[in-house]
Amino acid sequence: MAIFEQALVSGILIGGVYALIGIGLTIIFGVMRVINFAHGDLLMVGMYLTYYIFTILHIDPFLSIAITIPLMFLFGAFLQKFFINRVLNALPQNQILLTIGLGLIMSNTVMLAFTSDYKILTTKYSSSSVTILGISISSPLVISFAITVAISLALTWFLRETNTGQAIRATAQDREAATLMGINVKRMSIIAFGLGSALAGTAGALIAPTYYIFPQVGSIFTLKAFVITVLGGLGSVSGAMIGGVLIGVAESVGGAYLGSGWKEVITFVLFLLVLLLKPSGLRGKSQT
Amino acid sequence: MTPAADAGKGTHYVPLALITLSIGVLLMVPLFVESTYLLHMMILIFINVIIGSAWNILGGYTGQYSVGHAAYFGVGAYTTMILLQYRQIAPWYGIWAGAVVALMTALIIGSICFRLRGSYFVLASIAVAEIFRVSALNLKAITNGAEGILITEIPPLTIGGTLITDWESKIPFYYTGLIFALVSITVSWLVLRSKLGYCFQAIREDQDAAHSLGINPTLYKNAALAISAIFTALAGGLYGAYVGFIDPSTVLGLEKSIQIVVVCIIGGVGTIFGPVLGAALLVPLSEALRSNVITDLLIKAGLVRAESPVGVFLKENLAHAHVLIYGILVVIVILFMPEGVLGFFRKMATRRGSRGSGVGGRRKGKDLAVTSDSEPSTHDPKPATLDSHPATPNSDPRPPTPDSRG
User: Fold this and answer.
1) Residue B395 and residue B13: Cα distance in Å, rounded?
2) Which residue of A has its CA nearest to B119?
3) Residue of A nearest to B140 (CA)
4) Topology (CATH) of A2-277
5) Which of A119, B207, B221, B376 is the most exposed place for a label (fewest CB within 10 A)?
6) Is there a contact between B328 and A87 if contact means CB atoms under 8 Å apart?
7) Is the dihedral of CA B244, B246, B251, B255 positive or negative?
8) Domain extents in chain B
9) Chain A to chain B Cβ contacts (< 8 Å)
10) What is this structure's pTM?
């Protein structure tokens, strides 16, 4: 039973980071109905930012998110303004292909600039662990989970209470009605994509101390992000949180029993099942 | 006006003559060309023509954008290679076995994934291909896992005791590739001109309307996938036998799926010669990057010095980034010429000479509810998600159909 509990707890903790990735994707989808296939690559950019801030400026990865978040926000806003905004009315396939193209450009540019070597970010506490109730957990995971919870709460407050947050949610609900209410929809789209990339970048920063950093790491997370958001319901923020934790637990527990090689298959089978049985997701609006 | 369309109507013989001439030239190439590099490039172009045309039948004609076609490519390649490696079955038999396995896989996958539409279908197709990739990585007893399968020699092909080829040079691969490429283009043309093709396009334009007219979407989508999967698997088998090495990430990876789509969209989705053009543009570009031709050119032209840090950097790294060109091309094509290079030039031609006879033909085609010629639908801005029916009336002048949309 100890294996199960261990896997469960670390699954939940990893799930926190997954939730951040999923929330980013779901906000972008909610506001623009664009599925962002470059999401994992944004995360990869966040990882590299964190790595170089750490090695050059010697700033702790968990503190450097204060730099990563605004930088990634600006980067996302730039992508939205100059690329995504142009295809908002195009076929969904073309939108998908555009984001795939942007993702390829990001990963290959990073590869050109920093080579495809694996990089490892090692902090003093990278391999340390804490023991709670007889279960030992790696400390970077605990810290990153605490940060994800804080960010999720802040984001929920932002979307509910602030004017901009409400405008974003209005745009997600009905683009035309939002325009009629005087909301600058294009601006909301830019903010939404900025937010989405900031969240992906933050997730990248949080996993940087525990994960290999290489240019192609993004595609793994792009796929994971889809699974998480579809599981929770595309467009639903709370759904993405639940989906993230569920996938984290499924991978962790599945990996513990079936071997880590097969854990991704579990994720994708789960994904297909959700797509087929309840495509609107756990928290998705059931459209008629 | 596509040459093929003209030839189909039997009014113009010039395009037909052009096609015959180019086939003739292609048949002669190995007789005069010594460079193995050029032959290598041509073989890769042929393989890409096959996968592009195959994807086009599902993605271009039927409108089902599969970003998981690496699954069929990989199934074809793995079946051929496994049969050769462990059962000593020659690839010219194995490749057909690969096509059969891919067909069966396609029917299973199709029956599951075609319940989904639009973006959801894209996601499901990616998930399926990923399941195949991870399975190939883990089923080490059959696929040799991440190490991949390496074959050193192909048994010589003999018919009735006479040696046809020993596969030592690139020439037999050249002709095999050429034949498969021509067959795939012909099938693509035949499909587009047949009743099957019209049903495919009806589904692409408006699935619900097509359904209400008595076209069974699931049946026809599966038919499109079946044809597409067979040719993709043949290309995979050919690739495996030609290169002699396959591993999960090269034949089953997401990058492969994207490459298959890119070949098609660069040239022009839904056109017969789009994939040909796409392959002819993409392969040389990415090969030039891969083999450092561009760096050498820059150095020779005196723009970059070989010893300078920039020169050294380019020499070491540019070869790894040949995929970058895919990314840049995709972004350019989607933003500036969403109908592909072929569609872009055709549009320019139409705009320039509005008196040309080709325009009349196009108009005529457009008046029909089902566009007969190469017009990817761009008029439906609503994403066709699973649950939302396209409720807004389309802008095309289709006669009102009986309201079946609830």
Assistant:
1) 36
2) A92
3) A261
4) ABC transporter involved in vitamin B12 uptake, BtuC (1.10.3470)
5) A119
6) no
7) negative
8) 38-270
9) 139
10) 0.79
